Amino acid sequence: MTATLVAAGTAATSAVASADTNSVYTSSSPLPAGENGDVVKSQPSTYNGAKATRIQYLSRDNKNKQVAVSGTVLVPDKPWNGPGERPIVAYAPFTFGMGPDCAPSKTLAGEGASDLISGFQGGFVNALLGAGFAVAQTDYIGPWVEGGGDHPYVVRLSEAHTVLDVIRAAQRLPGTGLSAKGPVGIAGYSEGGSAAAAAAELAATYAPELDIKGVYSGAPPADKAVLSKSLDGGMYAGFLGYALIGLNQAYPEARLMDLANQAGAELFLRARQTCTMNAVLQFMYKQSSSLTKDGKPVSAYLTQPPFDAIVAENRIGTIKPAMPVMVEHSPLDDVIPAAVGKQMAKDWCGKGANVQWKDLTTFTPFLSHALGMTTASGDATEWLKGAFTGQAGNGNCGRF
Q1: Which domain of life is it from (predicted)?
Q2: Residue range 238-248, pLDDT digits in tens
Q3: First-last CA distance in the chain
Q4: To 10 degrees, the CA torsion angle through 171, 177, 183, 188?
């Protein structure tokens, strides 16, 4: 019964592509030949204060399979007054959902299923554009592109690849005036914080040609083992559901759904259709032990094969970033414990990286993770301004 439910849900979400074959959300099979970051197709989009172009580009999933990914390239109307070429900042979005209409390239254009979170996405993009940076925004892998499958939520390798390749795509997109060799940066918060951090780790080997001057990582969910306990049964239990959907997509050989009971299988299907706020409200305080066949919580499985190896592969902090990085996290964070982000930063420091740690300012523990986005966007922008002018500093390792 579980397998039937999952198969039915897969069929439903695979039929969401636009009838317009020119749409960036419609893909061809097989994919056209090309290199990582090549633009497959593009179409004009809309965004106040910038020339916006939606794109479909080539990237790689966690198994190194080439995939089609959607996103947006935004070039601000205001001229670049800084030194050298206009920088490109890869914006890694924070949790936006699993449903086909949740993709940021849609919601930023005033389409799709907008909610409170999509408004926060726009605020982060506006801060970057306001500094004169071009923005390359990825949707990551997901059902918004035909054949994309479920979104591999917070899966380290696939999210790093899509972030790095959207920079390449922006550099190669005709008609933008952007340099193919100019300075670039990366910024993200929450899910985007882990995607940005993963990209910082993989850049030297996956995209060594990119001139990355700095990476900002806010509130990164860098250790999934910790989050499997901290999210379970809490207000944001839906995010744990998203993580399980993502792991099932990225590691089908682990047969994660074999652990689910009927209620778990049904929740899985419902969660796959939600955007962020809907998931929070639907699955608030859900205990994962009520969703498994043997009544154990999800965290109990993550220390056992094959899941222990999956958790280890997705932990961030194991590779030294080659560029300066800023890690910021609120001590009051009510979704991702601040100790998770701080440990990642300390791990990088131990490897000799240039790390700037900062406590993110929030004034209340209630909704502190969500409200932290408003502070993070300005902090990320100001830090990247310094990084682009060679003033990122030497970090503060050993002092936090």
Answers
A1: Bacteria
A2: 999 999 999 99
A3: 51
A4: -70
